[in-house]
Specification:
The protein is an alpha+beta fold. It has 3 domains: 212 residues, no CATH class; 100 residues, no CATH class; 320 residues, no CATH class. Helices cover 16% and strands 23% of the residues. Strand 11 and strand 12 form a beta hairpin. Helix 11 runs antiparallel to helix 12.
């Protein structure tokens, strides 16, 4: 069903028209969810899918933070226009909901709240689906039972074209009197020999080369992130693609292509290639953050009583993002995007999940939003950059002072969660969230506004069970922290609505020696298991004098200084972590669960932690088995009398966590069922 609704500026007379904000909505699909199925007190839900239209005043102080906004084209009213697609899932009678909209920030176009919180599933890829329709898409209905209104609004402009239905924003390019030029850097590592490669990160949309013959163009190669770059002669490569007769041998026609780079000898696996080139007139990508801001503000403060769009019917807004979107929300708050054009607070709560201590290229000239940072992927982009902690610190090396939240005015300050798994300590410098810059002490915390939760013994996202082996040497880690997140979302809503503080932060500490240097980790000597010798690092990086003040990188490659000290969680005799929030299955273990997993030879250097993977290393069932293999960890029969004994211990630990507010009592049965499945797989 398609209907078109244009919310004209009259809609916003109640909120003042000094600035335009969200000015229109097209609804392409409007239908009941699952045929009108009712979810508890919330009742039936409905779904709307379409496009939101925005205008922002470039002279408004809330918009001056948008890089290159002064160069964007304007309409007759002097405003900058842009749009974003959206998906809205809300109670049909919105007053039956809990009054809170959760805006799920999409990850490179994918929408994950239903799969993560509801445990929804779609074998064809719900993350990309424009229109979830089946029962399994909505899982157990947790978010609906809680009464949340769910909203996804596009914010990233360069979402892969392979995700045509993904969340994206449509922003203008700069339109100056004279072209705006700049340098763009693209680095990549390939798994097999190829002769040409996109200039974008993975499969995203690249900035095209403006001048293929520019003297600034350079292609280099190195074998390690800290190695010196080796320049590849210009006559051996070009901005082109190979239309090959034999791709293995590189035989074919070389076609000029300003979005790809071609090397006549071929790109070799597991070497770091980096190309720098000139581009011009970029998109104004910071408007994507404004879309998130203005969408949630419209739901909280707008008015559209004559339409079936619940503007003004929502009292509170929570921003939720995992991985890249977690970093997006950290950037949004840090840069001041929680103040809308009417100078009101947009988000009341922010949940930045598995984003580490990082931000990202979300409001820069020629910013590449997909570029992150891993031990062997995407190097020296503005991701792991100072400041890291919420409180203000001074870097003793550079003399720069700053904090993530310390400068945010009280009237725009949300409640903030930084929630991370063990992987983020090994692969995204999470220790910098909670330590002094020198790595010597625990940093003070802003407890009245923020929480830090560490999910001990977990990888970036929990693996399915039984786990498979992907880019690492060991099976991936299925330690499921989604149960924690369900409770913490409820606790966040209670914090912003009722003022009831969320449960205390839980993370490893220097003071109790649960946070230590990598060389100090007492990992057991498990046969055939290799322990990491190094972590991902955050470096002091100089992008040029205009980076901090204007969001413009003028040094490519950037100048790299010394790394910050990185710490990781300490473990017990089983190799399981001691600090942070520990799932019942970690406290009453059947295996060693780690946040690291070294690359296998197909994917990368075998001494380097693989990106986003952890390890699942089960205990042996019997003492005889583990002694025959030389495993120092006790077997199941040495730990537990039987399956019932084990599940009883799991239940006791889960009940303790329920009483503390970190789990929900309604999830106890499924937590026990999940533990039983893992027991049965090992004790057979």
């Amino acid at each position: 069903m398609k209907m078109t609704i244009r919310i004209l500026s009259l809609v916003f007379l109640m909120t003042s028209m000094a600035s335009a904000e969200m000015v229109g909505v097209d609804v392409d699909i409007h239908e009941d969810v699952l045929g009108g199925k009712s979810w508890g007190l919330s009742g039936p839900y409905e779904k709307m899918i379409g496009t939101m239209y925005f205008e922002v005043d470039p002279s408004n102080s809330a918009n001056e933070i948008i890089v290159d906004i002064e160069h964007a084209p304007t309409n007759a009213q002097g405003n900058v226009e842009f749009s974003a697609n959206f998906v809205l899932i809300k109670p049909k009678q919105v007053e039956r909901g809990n009054g809170t909209v959760v805006l799920g920030v999409a990850n490179r176009g994918t929408r994950r709240m239903l799969t993560f919180f509801n445990h929804g599933h779609d074998e064809h890829g719900l993350w990309d689906a424009v229109n979830p329709t089946a029962e399994e898409h909505f899982g157990d209905g947790f978010l609906m039972e809680q009464g949340f209104t769910l909203l996804w609004v596009g914010w990233q402009f360069d979402v892969p074209l392979s995700r045509p239905h993904g969340s994206r924003v449509f922003v203008p390019r700069v339109d100056p009197d004279e072209p705006i030029e700049g340098l763009v850097r693209s680095d990549f590592v390939v798994r097999e020999k190829v002769f040409d490669r996109t200039l974008a990160d993975r499969n995203h949309v690249p900035y095209p080369v403006s001048d293929p013959d520019a003297p600034e163009s350079v292609l280099t190669v190195r074998d390690d992130v800290e190695d010196e770059r080796q320049v590849i002669p210009r006559d051996q490569w070009d901005f082109a693609r190979l239309e090959s007769v034999d791709s293995q041998e590189g035989i074919g026609e070389v076609i000029p292509d300003r979005t790809r780079v071609y090397l006549e000898s071929g790109f070799e696996p597991q070497r770091i290639y980096e190309v720098i080139y000139k581009a011009e007139n970029p998109e104004v990508i910071g408007l994507g953050l404004a879309a998130l801001r203005d969408a949630v503000s419209a739901f909280k403060y707008g008015s559209s009583d004559d339409l079936n769009i619940p503007l003004g019917s929502i009292n509170h807004g929570i921003g939720y993002g995992m991985s890249q979107p977690g970093r997006t929300l950290r950037t949004l708050i840090y840069m001041g995007f929680n103040e809308d054009e009417q100078h009101r607070k947009a988000f009341d709560g922010i949940i930045a999940q598995i984003g580490g201590a990082a931000r990202g290229s979300f409001n820069l000239r020629f910013g590449q939003a997909s570029r992150d940072a891993h031990p062997f992927l995407n190097f020296f982009y503005p991701t792991d950059i100072f400041p890291f902690t919420d409180v203000e610190q001074t870097d003793p090396v550079t003399g720069v002072t700053g904090g993530m939240l310390s400068h945010v005015p009280e009237e725009f300050m949300p409640k903030v969660y930084n929630v991370n798994s063990s992987y983020e300590y090994w692969g995204r410098v999470s220790s910098l969230l909670t330590t002094t810059v020198d790595g010597e002490q625990d940093a003070p915390m802003m407890d009245e506004h923020a929480r830090v939760y560490h999910f001990a013994g977990a990888q970036h996202l929990p693996a399915e069970f039984p786990p498979t082996q992907t880019n690492g040497q060991n099976p991936n880690n299925p330690n499921d922290f989604s149960w924690f997140m369900r409770a913490l979302l409820v606790r966040m809503n209670e914090w912003v609505v009722e003022g009831t503080p969320a449960p205390p932060s839980r993370y490893p500490l220097i003071s109790d020696e649960t946070l230590v240097g990598p060389a100090e980790v007492n990992f057991p000597n498990i046969p055939n298991i290799n322990f990491p010798t190094k972590t991902h690092k955050a470096y002091r990086v100089d992008y040029g004098p205009r980076f901090v003040s204007e969001g413009i990188i003028t040094k490519e490659p950037p100048e790299v200084g010394p790394a910050f000290p990185i710490l990781v969680p300490q473990v017990n005799e089983d190799g399981n972590e001691l600090g942070g929030l520990r799932t019942p299955g970690l406290v009453v273990p059947l295996a060693t669960y780690t946040g690291w997993n070294l690359y296998n030879a197909e994917y990368g250097p075998t001494d380097t932690a693989s990106h986003m993977s952890g390890s699942f290393i089960p205990f042996y069932a019997t003492k005889a088995e583990r002694e025959a293999q030389g495993d120092p960890r006790l077997s199941l029969e040495e730990r537990y009398d039987n399956r019932d004994h084990y599940l009883g211990l799991i239940a006791a630990e889960a009940i303790r966590l329920i009483e503390e507010g970190y789990l929900l009592d309604q999830d106890l049965r499924e937590i026990l069922e999940q533990a039983g499945v893992i027991w049965d797989s090992i004790d057979n």
